[in-house]
């Protein structure tokens, strides 16, 4: 099993076995995301509360009052927390033991999956509104409440329902193919843009701030370089005409320069739920010129864009698939909204 703590959380895991290679750990997590977890902690009444989120299902595990002397046995506490949470959801002790046996020795990597990190941050936000019983090591009522939180509309998939589905299909370990050996694409994307991590702090804070216009202009300049590379990718890899490629680029420019910078600083890799939210709400509500044809075109453009981001190694395969699944749902939701808007107009 792989634990991927945030940077501030790493010291809690300094007594456990570190991954020998970050790339190997990410390869293992990509092959078997049910056996990979991201982690952070929050302070409650000066006590550390560890928050673990499963990479595949977003199932949360909460461990309260983690002290310095707990570090040597943190792997034991994590196994106990997972067993309790899985038992509460699955009621399947045989397969749970099979999972824990497959998980074997715990190793520590570092947080890297932006989609899961986003889920971790969302859980932390939800916890800020909850009472946390520090006398209960694994607060089951709280974990139950978080497990019912919907992460992907319109299916409203929760950590609880996703875990039940995952145990039917993903409990068996799959062979690990090193990321450097995975076939990405014959066309090699040349990065001409700055790393998006340069603006992570602004994205994390959210909302408008003093000097926003200056930072937004920096992001837009960087987006232009990204979009130009995307254009080359469509023409040289997807064999599109310049006109068709330009139409896709124009759609993505609206997404990255208008929607993502509408209120705050966000980049294409800030949150893999952004394309769904853009289609489901912003596009139909703000772009009055958009009809069903344009919605479908935006969906196609976004799918190609996130495929490009994967080819450019800006996102993982899991993130790409998550984004594209959200795009499909977003197109459906947007078309339904348009239909209702038309019905309301004629009524």
Automatic annotation (TrEMBL):
Pfam families (alphabetical): DUF6933
UniProt domain DUF6933: residue ranges: 3-156
Top-rank lineage group of the source organism: Bacteria
InterPro entries assigned: DUF6933 (IPR053864)
Protein's recorded name: DUF6933 domain-containing protein
Species this protein is from: Macrococcus lamae
């Amino acid at each position: 099993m792989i634990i991927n703590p945030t940077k501030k959380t790493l010291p809690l895991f300094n007594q456990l076995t570190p991954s020998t290679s970050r790339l190997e750990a990410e390869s293992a997590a990509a092959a078997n995301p049910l056996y990979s977890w991201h982690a952070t902690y929050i302070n409650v009444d000066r006590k550390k509360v560890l928050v673990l989120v499963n990479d595949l299902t977003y199932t949360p595990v909460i461990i309260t009052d983690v002290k310095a002397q707990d570090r040597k046995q943190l792997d034991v506490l994590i196994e106990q927390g997972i067993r309790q949470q899985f038992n509460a959801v699955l009621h399947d002790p045989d397969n749970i033991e099979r999972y824990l046996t497959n998980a074997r020795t715990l190793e520590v990597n570092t947080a890297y999956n932006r989609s899961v990190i986003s889920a971790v941050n969302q859980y932390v936000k939800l916890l800020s509104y909850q009472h946390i019983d520090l006398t209960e090591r694994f607060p089951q009522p709280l974990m139950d409440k978080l497990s019912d939180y919907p992460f992907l509309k319109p299916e409203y998939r929760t950590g609880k329902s996703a875990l039940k589905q995952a145990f039917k299909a993903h409990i068996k370990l799959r062979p690990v193919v090193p990321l450097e050996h995975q076939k990405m694409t014959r066309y090699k994307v040349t990065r001409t843009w700055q790393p998006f991590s340069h603006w992570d702090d602004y994205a994390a804070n959210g909302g408008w701030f003093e000097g926003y216009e200056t930072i937004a202009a920096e992001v837009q300049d960087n987006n232009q370089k990204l979009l130009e590379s995307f254009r080359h990718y469509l023409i040289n890899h997807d064999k599109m005409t310049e006109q068709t490629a330009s139409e896709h680029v124009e759609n993505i420019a609206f997404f990255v320069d208008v929607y993502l910078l509408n209120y705050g600083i966000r980049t294409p890799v800030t949150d893999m739920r952004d394309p769904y939210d853009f289609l489901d709400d912003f596009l139909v509500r703000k772009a009055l010129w958009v009809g069903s044809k344009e919605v479908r075109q935006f969906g196609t453009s976004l799918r190609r864009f996130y495929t490009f981001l994967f080819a450019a190694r800006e996102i993982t395969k899991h993130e790409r698939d998550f984004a594209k699944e959200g795009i499909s749902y977003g197109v459906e939701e947007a078309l339904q909204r348009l239909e209702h808007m038309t019905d309301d107009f004629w009524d």
